Amino acid sequence: MMAVPLSVLEVAMVQAGSRAADTLRDTTPFARQVETLGYRRLWYAEHHHSPAIGAFPPAVLIAHAAASTSTIRLGSGGVLAPNQSPIMLAEQFGTLAGLHPERIDLGIGRGPGTLDEPTARALRRGAGPITDDEYRGDVAATLRFLVDEVALDDLPEPWLLASSTAGAALAADLGLPVAIAHHIRPDNTAAAIDEYRACFQPSRWCAGPRVLVCVETVCAPTHQDVEWLAGPMNVVKVGLLQGRGDTPFPTPADAAEHPFTEQERQALAGFLPQQAHGTPDAVVQRLTEIVDATGAEELMLVTPVYALKDRLRSYELVAMAAGRA
Hints:
The protein is α/β, with parallel strands linked by helices. It has helices at about 20-35, 60-70, 85-100, 115-125, 130-150, 165-175, 190-200, 225-240, 250-255, 260-270, 280-295, 310-320, and strands at about 5-10, 40-45, 75, 80, 105-110, 155-160, 180, 210-220, 275-280, 300.
């Protein structure tokens, strides 16, 4: 049995041969099922102008899922500070928390949510990338507005997303729990967590360090099934590793025919062993190793596979093997 809670990150993949409307339709049964399986949280990520990921605002998905579920915590993983007004973030998530007390998380990140520069500028109304000081100011202002302007009895639980020591240091300085993007930059995980724990300052939001680690997880009954299910994301991933955000999310059959270059194979060979791909027992063993190595108080699993039934089956197998379902 896993010793820490398990949660879910949903990135709302728009699959080849389907429409964005189909992805939205799937969000309701997905939220209900992961709640039934005993997962603690379900977070939604912010993305823009991607052929593989739907541009669905996390706050809207959270509101919809909250109306369709009753116990699972719902949040953003994350909303991106460069694209948002701090007071609007505070109002949106404060309202969600007021409507659904003790169920709403506000996870804030720094990235633009797109690799397309014109889209990034459009999101910021023509402005360029924010500086470290501007990002810190936006996060601090959002927290201040939650308390001083929204001022509801029930507030969302704020988290800071981090994939580097700089993000982890900001979370520590502001006294926020941190969600480590191990599924994006696993090589940074250990140093980021060390920085966070060493520098943490208690706050009204968090009395002591709290670390959540997000892990790419693909689980199936056989290794062949795992490779088949992981294929589409591997195609998208090598594009992202090369700085391209224009790769559609292919079918498993098309992914199996993808001509990976030797450089791409080496990149995947460096990334995949740090995640949790495998049969149920192997996945739980790998997740346990990550907990032991990081001291994480919680794990969040992201499972970017093609079909809703296969994605849910992966979460079900992990929950059963971990003693949660």
